[in-house]
Amino acid sequence: MAKRVLIAEDEPSILASLEFLMRRAGYETRNAADGEEALQLLPVFRPHLVLLDIMLPRRSGLDVCREIRADASLSGTRVLMLTAKGGNRDHERGLEAGADDYVTKPFSTQDLVARAQALLADPVLRLAPGAIPRQDP
Amino acid sequence: MLQGWIIVAASFAYIGLLFAIAWFADRRAARGQSVVSNAWVYSLSLAVYATAWTFYGSVGRAATDGVGFLPIYIGPTLTMLLGWFVLRKMVRIARLNRTTSLADFVASRYGKSALIGGLVTVIAVIGILPYISLQLKAVSTSFQILLGYPEVAMPPPAGSMVVMQDTAFYVALFMALFAIAFGTRQLDAAERHEGMVAAIAFESLVKLVAFLAVGIYVAYFMYDGLGDIFARASGRPDLEVLMAPLGGAAGSYANWVWLTVLSMFAIVFLPRQFQVAVIENTDERHLRRAAWLFPLYMLAINVFVLPIAFGGALHFPPGTVDADTFVLTLPMTQKAEGLALFVFIGGLSAATGMVIVETVALSTMICNDLVMPLLLRIRAFRLSEQRDLSSLLLDIRRAAIIALLMGGYFYYLLAGEAYALVSIGLISFAAAAQFAPAVIGGLYWRGGNRTGALAGLLAGFSVWIYTLLMPAFARSGWLGVEFVERGPFGVELLRPHQLFGLAGLDPITHAMIWSMIANVGAYVLGSVIRRQSAAEHAQATLFVDVYQQTGEPGSSWRGATSASALQTLVGRFLGPARAVELFTAYARLRGARSVDELEGDRDLVRFAELQLAGTIGAASARTMVATVAQEEPLGLEEVMTIIDEASQVIAYSHRLEEKQQELEEATRELKAANERLKELDRLKDDFISTVTHELRTPLTSIRAFSEILHDNPDLDPGERQRFLALVIRESERLTRLINQVLDLAKIESGLAEWRTAELDLREIVLEAIHATSAIFKSRGVTVEARLAPAVAPVMADRDRLMQVLLNLLSNAAKFCTPGTGRVEVRLEGHAGGVRVDVEDNGVGISRENQALIFEKFRQVGDTLTEKPAGTGLGLAICRRIVGHFGGRLWVESEPGRGSVFSFDLPAAAAAGGAGRLVANA
Amino acid sequence: MRKPSLRAYRIASLFLLACLLFNYPVLALFNVGATAGGVPVLYVYLFAAWGVVIALAAVVIEGGS
Q1: What percentage of chain B has pLDDT greater than the value 70?
Q2: Residue B540 lies inside a defined structural domain of this protein
Q3: Are B671 and B798 within one domain?
Q4: C54 to chain B, closest Cα gap in Å
């Protein structure tokens, strides 16, 4: 069963590219245009990975990340933060908020996909409780 | 033969002449042609200093002391040298304060204190009585001697006759009448007596000529010149010692010096000298002439003193004729009747002059500083309610003059025989000298205060009474000679002429030393111990800094009364007619048509006070004015006092404060500059961060899709086409963004090029609508234009205005709901400008966002649906463009109902100019 | 306060000179029995010095005003 990736990005064209890349990599995707929407989708979609833009309308990426980390039912969810380069130490703040990794915009598509795959392939990765049983590699 | 009636007739004729002169001078003064306002007259009037004492007494003194009589005249010479500094200051102060007398002057200086004024008056009266008695003695003695012509016989001693047969009594009586006639005929706001001064100047000439006449007569007619007299005198051992008397027999250098100091004070502080030198002065510049002319007068009147003294001593057997009478008796022995009579007239002249001026000065003091304050205080007299007090004032003065001369006569009876003329006079000099510390200290030492002045005057006067007045009474047998010789109750240490064992000095020098120590000491001590009151401080500053003042002194009165109340008040003392005259003149000066128009402000109150001060003295004037006006509460003055006392400290700390303030200011400016720099830095960072973020978004998409297209050659054509379209769209967005950022940067830095020309907005609006018609059509939004047929031209850059309109129109199109969207463009002219509205019926903008949308990179849109395609710079640029042409861009909106973006541009200057022309026509 | 004028200094100097002339010890120099032209020197000196002071005063205080 394909792993689920939630893409939270407010810029439509970037969202479109991310969606394409994740689908192409074989993952199931759902899109959120702002932080609020992402939070609504999280308990429903129960993604293995969230591609989280740090600057989202309504609720920021950082907020969303902290919510994920505070939610025990989402302990298996990995977070890949999309940050702005040199933008106020965004990546540090992202990691502090609990992100597992980050890429800076504009990103290399190959790099992004590799990082996403690495996070999803992590052997210690556990599935969220009640989630679809994890497929061992 | 010199019969009695001839002498009396000549005397009255002479006095009549003086009256005529006075009457003439008064008439001239009334017509404004003063004969007295003249440096020569002023200098001569100062010679009232030379009295019967000088005329008769100097010779007497010279016969026993040699040149010992001279310090009395050298002292004034020294004072006159300093007159330009000291006397001028007093004259200036007296004029500004309408000072009426010495007592008034001192009282004014020490906070207009009635107590000080009264004390000075008492001291002056008691101190001067011996001096007046001296004049009476001289006149009556000379009269009796002349009456004995051709015999030269000494008259019987004073007090040996029944009063009614005593010449001195009648002399006193007549002199009182003269003085009343001269000095109290009228009451004036400025206590000046021009007629009196003219008469005094004349009598000064008469006594000088008379004395020189007898001097020349004795030296060159009785003897063969000065050399002859001195040659003969050197043959007489008793006279020879007098040729080099100092350090020897009669006088020591200490006596000489102290007599000089004493007379330095006397020339200013004798009431009559203060009267002629200060009160009657009409022009400060006269002091320059007086500085040498008056000393010259004294030199002249003294040149023949020693020759006459020696001549007399050689002519008369020792002990037969009183040396005080040599001036008169020497011509008599030669049967020079005319000269003898002239000499008598000269002596009478000297005595009369002194008595008139002295009693006028003293009676003014008694009236203003002693009687009036008491009467005003005693409610029983109800003085403050009486209508016209001017005649009462004159009556008080007349009574005072009579009392003074009777007092002088009484002193003459009591002590007149015990002393020679000069010794009597010196007692008065020493009394007058007691005013010196208070006055001189008051002129130059701001710290001198009422307490100090009271203490000094009392201490000095007490010592004077003890060391000079009481011994005089003792010698006359009133107290018993033991008091002088053994001290009171036999205590030798307290002997009045050798107080505390200070022996070897003549009584005057001795008294001067002790009284000055007591006086100055108490003055300084009192001033240092007690704080000055605010009123005192104000007056002290007024006196000490008189040269720094321009015009009248400041007023402490609050304007809380009416002009008529003040006029009534002044009228009570000066007479209603005079008051009307004064107030009408004042009203004219102030530009008012009548007195009723005058406001009872502080200036007017001050004016009234000055008029009263000129009549009843400063202290009483203040009391009277206080009955109708309120005085300024002392609080403010108190504060001023403190400020002034600490003025130096404050000035210093003020400079420090200024420096500190400058530093603080500089620091503040630096801080502000730093803050601004920080703010700019932050803004720049924000801007860069925003710009980079805005740039990064399209870049990210472009890069991502480019890579996707590159890495996935197998993409189906539809997707491929979609991705390529996205790349193209994002590239366009990037280009637009970069252009707008550059555009904004140019506008903000002032580097933008503006091609300003007169434009017809209507044409531009139509063109903009046309240009955007495609967008509207594609979005299904209708556009409607409602343009005024003609509007005033505006001065602007065509392309820039087009940019603004396109921006507004495309925004409107963007936010309208497709299908139902409707945009209306309006153009209308108004006074001074043209206004454009772009109204849509789109989503609208919330109140808080209305201000934000004009900021850079602030986009407002429904993020749930679609991100707005703009860069977030459009409206910011538009607002700057409109602003550049002097216009305004704003928005009115209601969420859900749509927005109206409006801008407004001023009409071109030419059109405005024409409008103004029309308006003015 | 204005700066004292030259005249003020001259007047003050003249005053001090006069104080000196009419005081011990200058007086003592002339307090002798001798005569000048038959007149005692002290008498001559006093009036001469006095006259000089008056003349100087006339020049300094009133002259040139």
Answers
A1: 86
A2: no
A3: no
A4: 5
User: Between these two residues, B548 and B760, which has the higher pLDDT value?
Assistant: B760
pLDDT band with cut points at 50, 70 and 90 for residue B868: very low
pLDDT at position B202 is 92
Top residue of C54, C56, C59 to mutate, by most chain B CBs within 10 Å, is: C54
> What is the per-residue pLDDT for B300?
92
CB B196 within 8 A of CB B357: yes
Question: Encoding tokens for residue B849?
Answer: 């966002």
Q: Nearest CB to C54: which of B225, B245, B299?
A: B299
Residues B618 and B676 in one domain: no
Give the span between the Cα atoms of B276 and B193, in whole angstroms: 9
Q: What is the structure's pLDDT at B642?
A: 46
Q: Over range B852-871, report the average pLDDT.
A: 54
Q: Tens digit of pLDDT for each residue in B518-534?
A: 999 999 998 888 877 76
pLDDT of res. B862: 40
Q: In this structure, are B226 and B79 located in the same domain?
A: yes
Write out the two tokens for B300.
């002249």
Domain for residue B490, yes or no?
Answer: no
Q: Residue A114 in contact with residue A127, Cβ under 8 Å?
A: no
Please report the pLDDT score of residue B137 as a whole number: 84
The predicted-structure confidence for B63-77, as pLDDT tens digits, reads as follows 887 888 888 899 999
pLDDT value, residue A88? 56
Helices (H), B284-389: 286-302, 305-315, 326-333, 337-365, 372-377
CATH class held by domain A4-121: alpha beta
CB B258 within 8 A of CB B12: no
Q: Cα separation of B585 and B591, whole Å?
A: 10
Beta-carbon neighbour count of residue B899 at 10 Å?
Answer: 23
Say how far apart CA B699 and CA B732 lie, in whole Å: 11
Let me know the angle formed at the C-alpha of A45 by A44 and A51, rounded to the nearest 5 degrees.
Answer: 130
Residue A7 scores a pLDDT above 90: yes
Interface of B with A in 852-891 (CB under 8 A): 863-864, 866-867
Predicted confidence (pLDDT) at residue B753 exceeds the cutoff of 50: yes
User: Within a domain: residue C3?
Assistant: no
For an interface test with C, give the residue of B40, B43, B65, B67 to mutate (most C CBs within 10 A).
Answer: B67
* Same-domain status, B308 and B388: yes
Domain extent for C34? 8-62
Number of domains forming the structure of chain C: 1
With a cut of 50, list the residues of chain C below it in pLDDT.
Answer: 1-2, 65
Q: How many residues would you count in chain C? A: 65
- B692 and A86 within 8 Å at the Cβ level: the answer is yes
Residue B669, burial from CB neighbour count under 10 angstroms (0-12, 13-18, 19+): exposed
Q: Both B784 and B665 in a single domain? A: no
- B470, part of any domain: no
Higher local confidence (pLDDT), B93 or A7: A7
Helix, strand and coil percent figures for chain C, each rounded to 5? 65, 5, 30
Which residue range is the domain that position B564 belongs to?
A: 554-632
More confident of the two residues B188 and B634: B188
Residues B404, B328 share a domain: yes
Sorted by sequence, the CB contacts under 8 Å of residue B273 that are 6+ apart come out as: B46, B48, B49, B266, B267
Domain of B821, CATH number, reads 3.30.565.10
Domain count, chain B: 4
Domain annotation covers residue C1: no
Enter the tokens of residue B735: 């280009």
Q: Could you say which DSSP state residue B807 is in?
A: H
Give residue-wise pLDDT tens across range A24-36.
888 999 999 888 8
Q: Is B867 in contact with A10 (Cβ distance < 8 A)?
A: yes
**CA gap B701, A11 in Å, rounded:** 9
Q: CA–CA separation, B556 vs B558, rounded Å?
A: 7
User: For residue B863, what pLDDT is reported?
Assistant: 37
- The answer to whether residues A39 and A46 touch, using CB atoms and an 8 Å cutoff, is no
